[in-house]
Amino acid sequence: QVDAVRVYVNSSSENLRYPVLFVVRQQKGVLSWQVPLIFRGLYQRTYNYQEVSRTLCPSEPTPETRPSDQIIFVDVASMAPFNIAYELLVTRLENFQLETNKAFNFTASPSQPQYFLYKFPQDVDSVIINVVSDAAYPCSVVSVQDIVCPVYDLDHNVEFNGVYQSMTKQAAITVQRKDFPGEQFFVVFVIKPEDYACGGSVPSSIHGNVNRTWNLQRTKNLQVTIVPSIKKSVYVQAMFFSFLSFLSFYLGSVVVAFVHYISTDVKLTVPLGSLSIAGSGMMTSSHPISASTPEGSSYGAIDESSSSGGRQLSSPERRPPAGSDTDSSVEEESDFDTMPEIESDKNIIRTKVFLYLSDLSRKDRRIVSKKYKIYFWNIITIAVFYALPVIQLVITYQTVVNVTGNQDICYYNFLCAHPLGVLSAFNNILSNVGHMMLGFLFLLIVLRRDILHRRAMEMKDIYTLDYGIPKHFGLFYAMGIALMMEGVLSACYHVCPNYSNFQFDTSFMYMIAGLCMLKLYQTRHPDINASAYSAYASFAVVISLAVLGVVFGKNDMWFWVVFSMIHVLASLALSTQIYYMGRFKIGECYLGIFRRAVMVLYTDCIQQCSRPMYMDRMVLLIVGNVVNWSFAIFGLVYRPRDFASYILGIFICNLLLYLAFYIIMKLRSSEKLLPIPMFCIVATAVVWAAALYFFFQTLSSWEETPAESREKNRPCILLGFFDDHDVWHFLSAAALFFSFLVLLTLDDDLDTVRRDKIPVF
């Protein structure tokens, strides 16, 4: 048992020019202070206390002294030319050493800090120090310091040593045995003279004598409990659980692929005339394939002489051999029609009231496919250049936390933050493995579909069979990479979550939502979808706005005015492009697109008030603009601090709106939902609902001070290792995976339908 001594002093003197100086000399060090004891706050405020109590640095018994003997010298001095009365009281602390799993209550104040000793039991390698208080204020600081004298237990020096965090009602610090060679440490409790550091009121700037406060009553009742943390075996169990949970998705995919292989093998036995390969992108044809076409005909032209209403095929002279793929940079980067003979009638075709997929899939399949592959290669480049600086930055954050001991830098759930190595919250990083594993699995699924589609095309030489949705996999590959990068960047954010780096957690979520919308639009508009360069340039603008929102979005009204104007104008411009099926080029006249929007309103809503020319598109765009304008007004009025989540909400709402419109129009067109996409839709809805439940279980908030954020901290709920936010990571990864599968399989029912029978919406 370690003995400790506490010295209490009191002086009635208020003369700051001649304070009473107390110097305590011990075996291991010297401790000194003055009375009145002065604390300094904001705006040169001073807080003076005439009553001071300090715990002396304890000394363990040596062979030369008995366990209860300590030699202490107390020197009292003052330069005052007159006598000053003071009171000195030395007492022995009865409960200086804290015990495991036993709560201890005490009181502290700015001039009477407290600290206690804790020794690790033999079978405990890590403990969690839980500190609670019924009152949020006064603001306090909890510090863990090594057994070194002197102990830093005043407001101006408590941050000089060890690990510390500010506190209102709750604090929690995880301490590992390996960090303290002596297998013991001090737990220090300091009450701050002001509350602004914990989110309390900021004192006003007042000059003169009023700026000095005497003996302000700032006493706080605290309770400390030290409990053992998890053992190493729990880390192993958590890692096995994380990987095995998502490996089960791989197993399920293998089973589905095997069943599909069996069914495909059976269907391959039928003659060419009724060819059908489910899920591989192969089309079924009951029509003969012409060996040649009339002179002058072009790919995609309607064969008026065909009794079946089918389309003519390209001539053998113009069609390259099956499986050939040129690497021409012109073909890869071209953003214009490669069929000059239809250039003149392209706009006429797209003005038809009832469009079919054959009208918007007239370009060469190989060239369009190469165009969409640029999405994949560009996102890899973006991911590398974006992720490397992020990783470097968060490593720096973690290093600063470890070196300074300031746990107010990062907003963890400290009641469920399990360290590993240099990482303070390994569980928050491990839970992101699902995004990476499922993103890679989605890439494998897309690759399999791509390979089967290529084999079918090579085997039967049916480049020009116009059945089903055109198979372009570039955007799917990009979506898989984006899902993996979301896991990487979310893990980076959770290395040290705070206000400055939250944008890392959301950047690729913007890209995922944007790519999903582009893929959904590309499905029935393959010829007029945005190029990779313009799409990623748009994402770059969005991320730039997100960064500006982090810097200026908290208080600056001008930023919200500018952003709302950009949001509304962008909505109008995009609506006009969608309504006119890309026939109007923004670059031709910057202001012309808005004049065209006015023309749309005039012609379709005034001249033809009964029914617009493109009713379905008009309904979608009206609803979309109402939603986006509502977001703009909401942001302008309320100015949410979490600007990154605000932008993400805009993207997600637009994606959900478009997906709902697409499914409704698909069902209106008498198209079917096959069992696999139906299962994926149900699974997506169920998993997203469960994921959002855990997402809204707020465990920390960098919109508040670190001390206020810790009031929301809660214990682990899964395996004693993962908290609610980790479960959100698991479920959101699965939900995104199922969402991608919905887009991948949604139109599998159209593989046997001619494109001139598939409506565009």
TrEMBL record:
Does DNA repair appear among the keywords? no
TM segments? 238-262, 375-395, 429-447, 475-496, 502-521, 533-552, 558-580, 618-637, 643-664, 676-696, 727-746
Q: What InterPro entries does the annotation carry?
A: SID1_TM_fam
- From start to end residue, where is composition biased (Polar residues)? 286-296
GO cellular component terms listed in the entry, alphabetical order: lysosome; plasma membrane
Checking Pfam families in the record gives: SID-1_RNA_chan
Please list where the region (Disordered) is annotated: 286-338
Compartments annotated for it: namely: Membrane
The Low complexity compositionally biased stretches are 305-315
Query: What are the alphabetically sorted keywords of the record?
Result: Glycoprotein, Membrane, Signal, Transmembrane, Transmembrane helix
Tell me how this protein sits in the membrane: Multi-pass membrane protein
Q: Which regions are flagged for Acidic residues bias?
A: 328-338
Q: Which GO terms describe its molecular function?
A: double-stranded RNA binding; RNA transmembrane transporter activity
Q: Which PANTHER family match?
A: SID1 TRANSMEMBRANE FAMILY MEMBER 1 (PTHR12185:SF15), SID1 TRANSMEMBRANE FAMILY MEMEBER (PTHR12185)
Q: Which family does it belong to?
A: Belongs to the SID1 family.
In Swiss-Prot or TrEMBL terms, this protein is called SIDT1 protein
To which species is this protein native? Mohoua ochrocephala
Protein encoded by which gene: Sidt1
